[in-house]
Structure formats: structure tokens, C-alpha cells
Amino acid sequence: MFNILEARDLAPGVRYVRVEAPKIARRRKAGQFVIIRATSDGERIPLTIADSNAEEGWIALIVQGVGKATKTLNRLGAGDAIPDVAGPLGMPSRIERFGTVVSIGGGVGTAIAYPSAVALKEAGNQVISIIGGRDSSYVLLEEEMRAVCDEVYPTTDDGSYGYHGFVTDKLTDLIEEGRHLDFVLAIGPIPMMKAVAEVTRPHSIETVVSLNPIMVDGTGMCGGCRVAVGGETKFACVDGPEFDAHLVDFELLAMRNRAYAGFENTRLDEMDQECDRPQLLPVVPGGSA
Fold first, then answer.
1. pTM of the full predicted structure?
2. Domains detected in the chain
3. Is a pLDDT exceeding 80 seen at residue 93?
């Protein structure tokens, strides 16, 4: 069992969960993930390690409650325990001295971008961060990003905070201003990552994305996380999760990620019905129910 040391809300439906996992904390590197089960018979879900402390023996996860498994996890709090946490898994981020780097996080994708931004800064890069959300409540980890990055630009779709527009709009502005960009790391929803790739492609700016397809075992055995990169089949759990954005087949990735949408909706409906079902009080002999 893995004890939860801290759990708090970051945004509507998004939780920060700090878990006691000393072995994983000692070994993990930026870009790697864990696979967890919120219950002993639950679904296996991959979650990027957003932060860790090897000396104190904990890892931090940021969880968006979308399906039954993630919503179940987000109901847990400090003092509860997670039965299974396997990791660290996946290839670490490629960290080297590129020059000027742009780290782009869309929504919960910022949780993945953050540890890589830390590592890229420690490697001697100038790091520019663009963090986006559909409104101000979904702009995550701004304070943490400001502590490690040279420049931070929050953006919101509705203009409620920071730059009014998409992360790609701000990226385009930087390029049109004549900023020399050596490397871009973009993490977020599939349409966002695809859009970033199309912004950087004409300028031949090296761009990497972190993919989160359907994943079961995290060892390359099940094949559920296969993605097409440069016309070749790769497995995100062992070959990634980071790949050259200009080679990823985003259309195929999106189609495969929708494969179980119907099943997921059914399980969510069942979960809602369980929550709405009235709880019967036990009958006490000689007393009232």
C-alpha cells in the first residue's frame, strides 16, 4: 500500500496528490510516469510524476477526474492509501543544453511540462513557459513555473487571465517577434499538441510532445499504447512517452483514444447511479430503523 500524504484541489476536477513511494522517488527522472490502481480491482491508469523528493520519499501526481478510475482516485485524501503504484516507467525526457527552450503545458499537461522545465533549466537553458487553460481556474502551477523559468506566459481561451488566446497564439507571437527558439516541448490535449507541431514545422524548430494513449501494463506487452511515429509503430510506454511532434500521426492517436469512449461513459453512469442510490440504515433489534 502507498500512503497518501497530501491531497488538495488545484482546479475544478483536478487534484494534487502526494504519495509515499520512496523507491520510485529515488529513481524517477523528468518525463517518467507511474501506473496506479485506485482500488485493488480497479483500472490501471498512467500518471506522470509531476514532482518528487528522494530524501523524504514521496512523489506527486496531478489527477484530472475524467473517467471512473480517476474520479475514484480524486475522492481519496490524506491518510488513505493507494493499493498499487508501479514505476518509474517510460523513457526520461531528453535533457541537454539546447539554448532557448519553450515549455508548453495545456491544462493538466502543465503537470508533465513542469518537471521537464526544471531539468531543462538545470541543464543551462533559457526556459520560456507558456501555460494555458480554458479559463483562469485551469491555469496550473504558475507559481512553480515562475520559480524555475526565465519567462512565464499564462494564457486563457476566454481571456479571463493572462494572454487572451491559445498557447499556439502566444508561441506564434514569440516566433514573429524574432525570438530564436531552439527547442519546444508541448504537452496537453491532442489537438493542442498537433497545433503546436504545425506552428513550429515551417520554422524547423525541434518539437517534442508527450503522448498519453490508452495504456494497460506499461511494459510494451499489451500493445494498447501503440502510436504511429514517422510511419513506424511505437509503444508510448517503453519507446516514449515523448516523440518528435513533426512525425506523430495525431489523427490515428485521437481515433484510438476514442475507442473506449462508450464503455467509459457507461461506467461513469453506473458510478453516478451508485452515488445517487439511497443508503439504507441497518435495522437495530428492539429499536427503530
1. 0.84
2. 2-89 (2.40.30.10), 100-257 (3.40.50.80)
3. yes
